[in-house]
UniProtKB/TrEMBL annotation:
The protein, known as: HVO_0649 family zinc finger protein
Organism: Halorubrum miltondacostae
């Protein structure tokens, strides 16, 4: 699958999975741990829980015009 067939959000999740494997809390390298992504139409939140110590990491992306994005999502539902 080429980079063009995946969304920028999928590519960012894959980046986290590849580049952020080592837990900053305990130093465990989680080679199989996946980052989860959740979106509400205005924000995208990526999270990962260390399988060794349970520490959670989080990256959030917010669209600049959150209110307009949420209104658009609500109209489409």
């Amino acid at each position: 699958m080429s980079d063009r067939s995946r969304s920028p959000f999928e590519r960012l999740r894959e980046y986290y999975e590849h580049e952020e494997r080592v837990c900053p809390e305990c130093g465990f390298e989680d080679e199989e741990g996946a980052w989860e992504a959740e979106a509400d139409g205005a924000d995208v939140v990526y999270t990962h829980t260390c399988s060794e110590c349970g520490a959670e990491r989080r990256h959030s992306l917010e669209l600049p015009d959150r209110e307009t994005a949420l209104e658009h999502v609500e109209r489409r539902q």
